[in-house]
Amino acid sequence: MTDVDTLPTTAAPLREVGALIRGARQGKGLTQSQLAERVGTSQSAINRIEQGGQNMSLDLLSRISAALDSEIVTFGDSRKNSHLRVQGGAKLHGSIEVKSSKNGAVALLCAALMNRGTTRLHRVARIVEVDRIIDVLRSLGVQVTWSADGNDVEIKVPETLKLDAIDEEAGRRTRSVLMFLGPLLGRFTQFELPYAGGCDLGTRTVEPHLIALRPFGLEVEAGAGWYHATVSPKSGEQITVILTERGDTVTENAIMAAAVRDGVTVIRNASPNYMVQDLCFYLQLLGIEVEGIGSTTLRITGKSRVEADVDYWPGEDPVEAMSLLTAGIVTNSEITVTRVPIEFMEIELATLSEMGLKYTITPEYLAKNERTRLVDVTVHPSELRAPIDKIHPMPFPGLNIDNLPFFAVIAACATGETLIHDWVYEGRAIHLTDLTRLGANVKLRDPHRLDITGPTHWSGAEVSCPPALRPAVVILLAMLAAKGTSVLRNVDIIARGYEQLQERLISLGASIESFRD
Asked: 82-99+316-516, what's its fold?
């Protein structure tokens, strides 16, 4: 114990503690009212605590921990690491809903900087990456408020942003801070951003961003841990931007830069991926003309000042959809994944069909944003076989780059040899060799290619969590298939991209418990 009687009052720690309490409560199958009754407080107080909106005494925290039979936080000089213990080998069952996309939410939060009116985003993924961007926004003076149920967020941008007060720590812990470049160059002639962080995926240069933004008059110098930006505005004239890399965040940065200037911008070799389309739909609500959505050529007529009150529902996340489908596939189970954004999953499902997966799909229906096409997918127990050709990602409409790692664990369940070619990232394939700890036959040809031979007789093991989000989840899903007990250590990175993944897998019948040491 410490010699203070309350938890820190800053927003980020309270939200982190609230999320831990929410996860532990749901893991115990308790409602907020039931927990409140055990603790001796009100349901509304538990709701505020779980949303990070209420300070807590150590006595209250102790009572909550006792009610949940879980050590929510520890005190002292050393921070205990978070781990997962998995009892694998069991069938999953039931239905689970896909949440809105993390990547879409991050881009929309950055884009909200352009709007002097009120932006309300609905069904926002409540994940670490989103919270870090919100911390940066709040440090700039932006008013960001979560709804009482924690699903919606309201953003109000002041007339003057406090760039000198930017949350340096939060900015360094998320690569998404790079997406402030586009919106800010429309408001400032000089500004600074902290070096960006993110997953350990090898060298991922920021140069494509800088190439994309130079036509707008942006120049960036790096030094002393900061990006120093200077802007020579180019209003009025038509600009044509040729992207040297059809990257999602690069495209989003260029789109936002185009949106904040008076004039027409044509962007070629643009990514038409799901999060880019979400951004374009939002900009249209702001009154910005965007032509060519879903194609690789965009024509944007921007405005230097936008003041509109808008509501937007981000589209569902195809990567989360793939994650949940994979859980059913590798455990040879029958589960239904609802609200799957089919436009961004067609290649994945076609590849799985080639591998022998049996699945059924409902007729299409529209998401809340009235743009994203959704279906419900039920996977059935199947005898999988290796595909004839290699599996590799491509920019949309190809197989999603972030979905490729899931095919590694699926290939390990298939009969035959599969070549996985992860040409995008320099180091991600290396992390997937951790599947060998659980019994898979995975051979690394080079930093980009894997030979995987199946089927695998999975067995439990202890594995340190890879320092990259998707490989980390792949290892967790393999543990669901592995007979016996497995331990996945240092799992904090999973919270960067998934909201309550452990609890949601438990709802399908998985046996997973968290612990710290």
From this structure: UDP-n-acetylglucosamine1-carboxyvinyl-transferase; Chain (3.65.10)
Candidate CATH numbers 1.20.1560.10, 2.130.10.10, 1.10.287.4070, 1.10.260.40; the one for domain 2-74: 1.10.260.40
The CATH code belonging to domain 102-312 is 3.65.10.10
Block residue for tokens 């993390």:
102
**Do the Cβ atoms of 297 and 324 come closer than 8 Å?**
no
| Dist. CA 348–CA 418, nearest whole Å | 15
Q: Give φ, ψ of 103 to 5 degrees.
A: -65, -35
Cβ–Cβ < 8 Å for 342, 364: yes
Distance from C-alpha of 505 to C-alpha of 489, rounded to nearest angstrom = 18
Q: How far apart are CA 134 and CA 401, in angstroms?
A: 26
Write out the two tokens for 431: 């992390």
Per-residue pLDDT reduced to its tens digit, 93-144:
999 999 999 889 999 999 999 999 999 999 998 888 888 899 899 999 999 9
- pLDDT 10s digits, 473-487: 999 999 999 999 999
DSSP 193: E
Residue entry with tokens 């907020």: 32
Amino acid (1-letter code) at residue 469: L
